[in-house]
Records
---
Amino acid sequence: RRLYFDTHALVCLLEENGFTTQQSEVIVSALVKIMNTNLDMIYKDMVTKVQQEIALQQVMSHIAGVKKDMIILEKSEFSALRSENEKIKLELQQMKKQVMDEITKVHADNKLNLNLEKSRVKELHAQQDRALTQTDRKIDTEVADLKTMLESHKLDNIKYLAGSVFTCLTVALGFYRLWI
């Protein structure tokens, strides 16, 4: 392992500051052991460049597999959605045709019913007109009969009146003759 500081320079520095050579070497040796232990702990948690590249390749192949699966799933979902959409379009067209047929049927039924009602109303009006005409004829006949009866009664009354007047005149002439 490389050490990123000069151990001999540290020993010399310690000797300059009052440590003996043996003490300085022991301190530097302890520092090297501590650093190596720390580096071992750090290296345990770290990966090497090769391990990192292998992990990256594994991740990339996994991503590519997921991408393929997604594309296949998307295509199958898309085709399933497309076929479902076509089914719904066909059902919608059938329903539209059925609705249009029903509308046409209802329209024809309504037109037929309307024409039947018109003919019934016309027949009813014709019957009413005939009844009214018959009633008018009956009234006219009755009025004519009443006029005829009135005229005959008038004539009878005139006859009776004339007869009464002549009778009174005859009686008056008879009395007049008798008195004269």
---
Amino acid sequence: MATIAELKAVLKDTLEKRGALGEIKARIRAEVFNALDDRSEPRPPLSHENLLINELIREYLEFNAYRYTASVLTAEAGQPEVPLDRQFLVKELNIVEDANGKSVPLLYGIISHFLRGSKEESTQGALPKVSLLNYPRLNLAKPSTERNHK
């Protein structure tokens, strides 16, 4: 008959293999944060720039299925519960988005734009262009759950 220690080890191993252990730990951290968060203490006003930055990060987190991390960000930053409309972000950030880029978070396109060094757009003030074509090393065609396990 298996000992309690052996059962705990098997359970932990099973939960790790399924990816559930990480989710459980993240959920516990989010719940602890919510329990400790002092809502009676007013937060500083959320600036327009921080609102946009937080939204880009939230879009990235949700795309990669980091739901609990996104929920902690939303709560801690005082970000609106309802995400900002993507088209609003595109307009506010002056991003030129092609059809392929719409399937990935805006942050991927922004980073790709600067990693390329704007080689294609040599004029100053050129707008970042968000495109899947800019991500040759990322396998963005696979669902996020498959990308996360690699």
---
Amino acid sequence: RCVLKELESLGKALYGAKLIAQRFQVRNCSHHKDPVSGSVCLLSMIEEGNPHHYFIATQDQDLANKVKKKAGVPLLFIIQNTMVLDKPSPKSLAFVQKLQMNQLVPEHQKESIVQLKEKEGLAKQEGEKRRKRKRAGGPNPLSCLKKKKKTTQEGQEPSAEKKKRRKRKRNR
């Protein structure tokens, strides 16, 4: 409501923006009796961790910088007639990482879980079969040339080692 009041007070120059803003659902803010500027109103609505999961769409750099300082508030802006979702701010990333660390199981609880599993006989046994990893093999033997036999000095006398073959006689 405060944004609509601000657009009305700025006059005919922003009449088109006022019509566009009226098309969207109007959220009630805490200062409807004495309206404040639009940026102050938007910042007050995302206080305390953005409970209603609002997105902030703005071209105002001051408002964008203030929104980036708050964790968990997505920021939209327009570049050449295209709406762009800004990457998460460092504050948001740090907040998410802190939440993830708090959700992990503490070490003393992990140790007690392992002890209870051993007590119940559910722990992994050392003698379990493990799958062997496939190692990189050599080249395909069918695609390689055969090795050449080494010739020795004794092997150079072909007539001595050759067997005599019988010649077949033809009957005519």
